[in-house]
Amino acid sequence: MISELAKADDRQRTFVIQPNPPLAWSALFRVFAAMAVFILGIGVTCALVGLPLVLPFAGLEVIVLGVALYLSAVRGSVREVIRITEAAVVYEAGRATPVVTCTFPRHWARVVLEKPPGDWYPGRLLLRSHGRQVEVGGFLEEQERRHLGLKLRNALQTDAVVVQVYSKSISADRCRGLEHEA
Fold it and tell me: Which end of the chain has the smaller Cβ count within 10 Å, N or C?
């Protein structure tokens, strides 16, 4: 999921990239509890019937399920933030606080979309400058990655050009007067 934050009067543009949101912690806990009750219920039933070795494996299955759901939720809370200012492109990645931070000079920063080596592999979206590079949006789908690449390229190119608009123009009569004086 890509969110773009920009103000009309502000020269800074911010892109927030994150995986599609996972379940909320409360909903995730309810799913885990329901699955744990079901799995342990089968384990206890098998133990009462005379198959006592099923119960330890059912407990192990509940533990593995809990760890997998937790790791999935943690991985889903990763954020990548790209800020494009007049002077620099700042890339930050992490969960609650940035763990990885890279700063590139804006005029030298390039957005590169590398094609995959085969049909089965995803492409890579890279921010490059002066021999350094960082991959952006590795968790995005291919279409989202291309769309983000286009947005970043446009943001780097269009905002770099400063157009000055003058509120007062020189009148045609004044110009004619300047030509005659010369």
Answer: C
